[in-house]
Amino acid sequence: MIKGRSGALGSVLRFAASVMIVSGGLLITDAGATVAWQEPISALLASRQQAELGRALEHPPARVIRRKPLPGDAIGKIVMPSIDRSYVVVEGAKTKDLRKGPGHYADTPLPGERGTVGIAGHRTTHGAPFRHIDSLKPRQRVILEMPDGTYVYRVETTKIVDPSQVSVKRKVGYDRLILSACHPLYSAAQRIVVFARFVRREPARVGRRR
Fold this sequence. Notes:
alpha+beta, Sortase, Chain: A, 8 strands
């Protein structure tokens, strides 16, 4: 009887050890993926969200067409040809909004309106849409495809600023776009901000008027 109990206890301990080893391996793999690319679980969720938003953008609601979106609405697409990235942009830049993809700062104009358009995005989680915005160079295009038109910008410069430096969103003497994300990678100590100047409007490429 004692040997039987000892054997059973040994089996339980071996099983527990195996679970811990496998769990540890998964955690190491997850950490490695995050360092090398992005956090995989939130990336999968963000990918699903982006697919849903893309479908919603095919037939945007009237409020989006009228430029009165609600937080979380798909409002357009951001395309960065030089780094081969494109994402659906949502209205709002709060935590819950940025889990879906790049988010438009609600206190800034929408593309096509006068002033400085602001868009924020993650660099290591939730699809990491802005992970490589530090690779954007002057004169490279950033394109915002909206239901009412396509707005083309060209990068001017990139700056590293403190999180409290909201002056990056101020109006200047011309229409422009800023892309904002945490900096450096895996830290929220600073912000990387890409400044791009509006150059032209083209016909709409996304959405369909009802």
